[in-house]
Amino acid sequence: SIAYLNGVFLALDEPALPIEERGHQFGDGVYEVIRIYGGKPFMLDEHLDRLYRSAEAIRLQLDSDRAFFQTIIHQLIDRSGLADLDIYLQVTRGIAPRNHTFPNCPVSISMTAKPSRATPVELKENGAAVWMHPDERWLNCHIKSLNLLPNILAKQVAADNDCLEAVLVRDGYVTEGSSSNIYIVEKGAIRTAPLTNQILAGITRIAVKRIAQELDIPFHEQPFTPEELRNADEAFLTSTTLEVMPVVRYHDDTVIGSGKPGTITQALSERLSALTL
Ligand code: PDD
């Protein structure tokens, strides 16, 4: 494991930031989680596109270009000596005396490179359980903001109930997971919430949509209700760290579909794994 902070490579546990850093005090920043497979970043262009979009959405002026991020990421991979990594990348509005209005200082750029948090194979093979939770987040969930308190609180309730993920519900519809996108399969078609300010535009979602098109599986971007999730033929989550994770139980007792990972879910999962080889 290794880290990068404002031009310097350092150990992950090295004390590095002054107390008055805006990410630390305000959560005033944005982030990305990027997966490295066999030394190669997966969909890095899409991650950087989203990083610039998030920065712009919070009026954070990011002068570093794509080549800069690509270079640091490749240096982190080399220095780590690892092939399968999670890169965490964070940009904040910098280091300045605490004051809500924007400071006039350089942004802080930090990254960590750590061995990939591989999901237990058993969970992937058998499928996961999810827990419904009210979506208590703000109205700019398309921004990959550092402010994750509602996400953390929801996911902890899920974990307290032995579920892998919290599925967030707003105005009667499922938006997404606390740190993933969610999909159902009905009569051979995939359904997931459309890209609005209510969900994060997942990079794995882009990959799954492309795969669905390739495999001629209809991909409908329409929201669904908790009831429709309960009655779906199949359900699954996606994220950079989970990849395609089958969902087979709801609130620990209701079985979704056959109670086993569905055939379309498995086809998507296999195709995605093939892309990462
Ligand atoms: N989370 N929705 C939310 C709220 C997320 O936090 C994430 C990712 C996703 C899936 O996006 P992607 O496919 O680009 O990983 C959807 C990351 C992994 C995290 O916070 O650790």
What does this structure look like?
The two termini are 22 Å apart. The protein is globular, with a radius of gyration of 19 Å. With 277 residues, the protein is an alpha+beta fold. The longest helix is centred in the N-terminal third of the chain and has 15 residues, at 66-80. It contains 8 helices and 15 strands. It has helices at residues 22-26, 44-57, 66-80, 121-126, 149-160, 203-214, 226-230, 263-275; strands spanning 2-5, 8-10, 29-37, 40-41, 85-92, 108-115, 128-134, 165-170, 173-177, 181-186, 189-192, 219-221, 234-239, 243-250, 254-255. Helices cover 30% and strands 29% of the residues. The model has no long low-confidence stretch (mean pLDDT 97). It has 2 domains: 2-115, D-amino Acid Aminotransferase, Chain A, domain 1 (2-Layer Sandwich); 121-275, D-amino Acid Aminotransferase, Chain A, domain 2 (Alpha-Beta Barrel). The strands form 2 sheets. Strands 7, 8, 9, 10, 11, 12, 13, 14 and 15 form a 9-stranded mixed sheet that branches. The chain binds N-(5'-phosphopyridoxyl)-D-alanine (PDD). N-(5'-phosphopyridoxyl)-D-alanine is lined by residues 33, 176, 179-181, 200, 202-205, 238-241.
Write the layout of secondary structure elements.
Layout: E1 2-5, E2 8-10, H1 22-26, E3 29-37, E4 40-41, H2 44-57, H3 66-80, E5 85-92, E6 108-115, H4 121-126, E7 128-134, H5 149-160, E8 165-170, E9 173-177, E10 181-186, E11 189-192, H6 203-214, E12 219-221, H7 226-230, E13 234-239, E14 243-250, E15 254-255, H8 263-275
Parallel strand pairs: 7-8, 7-14, 11-12
Antiparallel strand pairs: 1-2, 1-6, 3-4, 3-5, 5-6, 8-9, 10-11, 10-13, 13-14, 14-15
Bound molecules: N-(5'-phosphopyridoxyl)-D-alanine (PDD).
N-(5'-phosphopyridoxyl)-D-alanine (PDD) binds at residues 33, 176, 179-181, 200, 202-205, 238-241.
